[in-house]
Design brief:
alpha+beta, 5-stranded antiparallel sheet, elongated
Length: 629
C-alpha cells in the first residue's frame, strides 16, 4: 500500500513540477530517452498514408476553398519529388480546373489566409510548369490581397481584430513569405518590395524581448498577446526568408532570438514538441484568459520544426537540430490521426531532416560541388593518374548525359573523314579552358569561383547561337577562326569545346576542385595547369575513341544512312536556305543544352538519375582520393 502511494505521489510530483516550471522556462535538462526515436519511423510510409487520405478527402463534398487549395498544394509537393510524373500531370490539370473566387474585401485574417493559400497553390504550380493560367491567377490573387490588405502608408498588411485595424504576426509573416516567393518565381519586382517592407515592420513592431507578439494595434501603437507558438514560428520563417533574400544580418539576428525564445519558453525538453502558449504577461491578454496552454498542436509544431530545420541549415547550431529531432519525435506517432491538409509542413520538415542526416553520415560527398577540397599530398605521377581517371569519371558521370548528345550531334554533321579532326579541335578547346582555369587560379581564381554562373551563362548563349545556325543550315562555318582555310568547322569545334568546358564545371567533382586549389598556389601553377590538361585529356579521350569507331564504320550502315538524312530548300524573304534533317535535330539538341546551361539546371540532371547511381560515382571518386593518400 505504501509503495503504491509513493509511486502515485512521485508521478504526481513529476507532472506538477514540470508544468509549474514550464510556465516560466522550459529549458531544463530532462532525460532524452523520453523523446520518441524518429529513426524507427518510415516517413515514406507516412507520405503514402497522407497522400491516400488527401486523395480521398479531395473527393468529399463541402470542402472550403482553403481546404481544397491546401490539399492540392500537398499533392503537388509530394508529386514534384515523385518518379511517377503522370500523377504530377493530373494534379496540375486539377489545379487548372480549380478556379478561385475573388478575395472578399472583409479585411478579416481568415479571408486573407484563404487568399494566400490559393495564391501559393498557383505560384507552386507555375514553378513546376510555366503555364500562363497559373501565373495569371497567382498574380491576380496577390494583387487583390495587396489592394485590400496592404497599407501603403504603414507598409504592412492590416486586418480587423475586434473592429480595430491591426497588424498580426501570423498574417504578415505568411503574406510576406508568399509575396517573396512569388516575386522570384513570377518575376514581379513590386511583390519583393512589399515583402521587404512587411518583414521590416514585423521585426520592428511585433517582436519584443526576443519573442513575437500576435497583434499590433495601429491606432495605439501597442503590441498584445505574446508567447504564442504559431506567431513565433511563422515570424521566424519570414525573417529567415528576408535574411536569405536581402542579406540583412539584423533579420538573421532576430530569427536567432526567436529560436532562443522558443527553446526556452515553448519547447518541451522532456517529451519533445512545442506547447501552444507560454506568457508571463497578463497585461497582454484579456482578463481571465489563460497565459499557459500546454497543448502541443500538430500543424503548429510542424511549422516550428520547419523553422528550426531552416535556421539549423544556416547556423549549424546543434541545439536547433535537436529541437527538430524532438519535434518530429513527438509528431511521428500522431500523423495518422491528423487531417491531411494540415500535414504539408510535417512532410517537408521530415524530408529536410532526413536529407541533413544523410549528408552528415556521408560527409565526403558534401564536397561534390565544393572548391575547398585538398588533393592528397603525393608525387606528380600519382596525381597525374588521378587527374586522368577523374576526367574519365567526369565523362561517365550522370551530369554529362545532356552534354554528350550535343557533342555527337555537332561532330557528326561534318564529313566522315574529318570527324577525328573535329573531335581533336573540340578537345583542344576543352583543354585550353581548363588549363587557363589552372593558370589564372592564383590571381583570378576567386573571380571564377564567384562568377562561374555568369561564365556558364555566356557559354550557354554561345551554344544556343550555334543551335540556331545549325537550324538554318549554316552549320558552324560562321565561326571563322581560321581564315582562308577549308577548316572553318574546325574553328567551330574549338569554340564548341571551350563552351562545353564551362558547361562541365557545373558538374565539378572533388578531384577537379582539388586540382584548381592546387593550381592556386603560385609556385605550383605549372603543375596545376598540367594536371588540368591531363584531366581534360581523360575527358576527351573517350570522345576520340568513339569518333574513331564511327569513322571506321561502313558508309552503308544504319547509322550513316540516318545521318545522311534528307535535305530541302526553303525560300524565306527572298533568301534560299538549305535545310537538312540532321542539322535540324542537331540544332534542337544544341538549343536545349544551351537553355540548360543558361538556366543553371545542367547540374540538376542528376535528379533524374537513381540515387544509387549518384552514390556509386561519389564513392568511386572518394576511393580514388584515398588510394593516393
Amino acid at each position: 500500500m505504501l509503495r503504491q502511494f509513493l509511486l502515485y505521489f512521485f508521478t504526481f510530483f513529476l507532472l506538477t513540477s514540470s508544468i509549474a516550471y514550464a510556465k516560466t522556462d522550459l529549458s531544463g535538462q530532462f532525460s532524452p530517452p523520453l523523446i520518441s526515436d524518429i529513426a524507427k519511423y518510415d516517413f515514406k510510409k507516412a507520405e503514402t498514408h497522407i497522400l491516400k487520405n488527401a486523395k480521398i478527402k479531395l473527393k468529399s463534398k463541402g470542402l472550403s476553398k482553403k481546404e481544397h487549395a491546401e490539399l492540392l498544394t500537398l499533392l503537388l509537393t509530394i508529386y514534384k519529388n515523385s518518379d511517377d510524373k503522370s500523377n504530377l500531370a493530373k494534379t496540375l490539370a486539377d489545379i487548372r480546373g480549380f478556379s478561385p473566387d475573388a478575395v472578399r474585401a472583409d479585411k478579416t485574417e481568415a479571408e486573407l489566409e484563404t487568399g494566400l493559400k490559393l495564391a501559393r497553390l498557383y505560384n507552386s504550380a507555375y514553378s513546376v510548369r510555366k503555364e500562363k493560367i497559373f501565373k495569371d491567377r497567382a498574380i491576380g490573387l496577390l494583387k487583390q490581397i495587396q489592394n485590400i490588405y496592404f497599407d501603403n502608408k504603414t507598409n504592412v498588411f492590416i486586418v480587423n481584430v475586434n473592429g480595430k485595424p491591426s497588424a498580426t504576426a501570423t498574417a504578415n509573416a505568411a503574406a510576406s513569405t508568399i509575396f517573396l516567393e512569388a516575386s522570384k518565381n513570377l518575376q514581379e519586382k513590386p511583390f519583393e518590395d512589399i515583402a521587404r517592407d512587411s518583414i521590416a515592420y514585423l521585426k520592428n513592431n511585433l517582436i519584443k524581448g526576443g519573442g513575437a507578439f500576435h497583434i499590433f494595434d495601429i491606432n495605439t501603437s501597442s503590441a498584445f498577446m505574446d508567447g504564442q507558438l504559431i506567431d513565433n514560428a511563422m515570424a521566424g520563417i519570414a525573417l529567415l526568408e528576408g535574411y536569405k533574400n536581402f542579406k540583412d544580418e539584423t533579420k538573421l539576428d532576430a530569427a536567432k532570438n526567436i529560436a532562443e525564445f522558443m527553446q526556452k519558453r515553448l519547447y518541451d525538453e522532456k517529451f519533445g514538441g512545442f506547447i501552444q502558449r507560454n506568457s508571463n504577461s497578463q497585461e497582454y491578454y484579456s482578463e481571465g484568459e489563460e497565459l499557459y496552454i500546454g497543448d502541443k498542436p500538430f500543424e503548429e509544431n510542424a511549422i516550428a520544426g520547419y523553422f528550426f530545420e531552416s535556421i539549423y541549415e544556416i547556423t549549424g547550431d546543434a541545439r536547433h537540430s535537436d529541437a527538430v529531432k524532438g519535434t518530429l519525435g513527438y509528431l511521428a506517432p500522431l500523423y495518422k490521426d491528423i487531417s491531411p491538409e494540415k500535414q504539408a509542413y510535417f512532410l517537408t520538415t521530415a524530408n529536410n531532416y532526413i536529407k541533413s542526416i544523410a549528408a552528415a553520415k556521408k560527409e565526403p560527398r558534401t564536397e561534390k560541388l565544393g572548391w575547398e577540397t585538398e588533393l592528397p599530398k603525393t608525387g606528380l605521377l600519382p596525381l597525374a593518374i588521378l587527374s586522368f581517371l577523374a576526367g574519365i569519371l567526369s565523362f561517365l558521370s550522370p551530369c554529362t548525359l545532356p552534354i554528350l548528345p550535343a557533342y555527337f550531334a555537332f561532330a557528326f554533321q561534318g564529313e566522315k573523314r574529318r570527324i577525328m579532326a573535329m573531335t581533336f579541335f573540340f578537345f583542344l578547346g576543352l583543354a585550353l579552358v581548363f588549363s587557363i582555369m589552372g593558370a589564372t587560379a592564383s590571381f583570378i581564381g576567386s573571380f571564377l569561383k564567384t562568377n562561374i554562373s555568369i561564365i556558364t551563362t555566356v557559354g550557354g548563349i554561345l551554344i544556343i547561337i550555334f543551335g540556331f545556325m545549325s537550324l538554318i543550315g549554316k552549320g558552324f562555318s560562321g565561326a571563322r577562326i581560321f581564315q582562308k582555310s577549308p577548316s572553318a568547322t574546325l574553328g567551330g569545334s574549338f569554340i564548341f569545346g571551350a563552351a562545353m568546358a564551362f558547361g562541365w564545371t557545373a558538374c565539378v567533382g572533388p578531384i577537379l576542385a582539388g586540382i584548381l586549389v592546387l593550381a592556386a598556389t603560385e609556385e605550383k601553377v605549372l603543375r596545376g595547369v598540367g594536371l588540368l590538361f591531363i584531366y581534360a585529356l581523360g575527358l576527351g579521350l573517350p570522345l576520340m575513341i568513339i569518333s574513331l569507331f564511327f569513322k571506321n564504320m561502313n558508309r552503308d550502315s544504319i547509322f550513316w544512312r540516318f545521318l545522311k538524312g534528307k535535305g530541302w530548300e526553303v525560300n524565306i524573304f527572298g533568301r534560299t536556305l538549305l535545310l537538312h534533317s540532321t542539322s535540324i535535330i542537331s540544332g534542337i539538341i544544341f538549343i536545349s543544352l544551351g537553355v540548360l546551361m543558361v538556366s543553371g539546371y545542367l547540374a540538376y540532371i542528376n535528379k533524374i538519375i537513381p540515387l544509387s547511381t549518384q552514390v556509386w560515382f561519389a564513392d568511386i571518386e572518394d576511393k580514388l582520393m584515398e588510394m593516393f593518400k
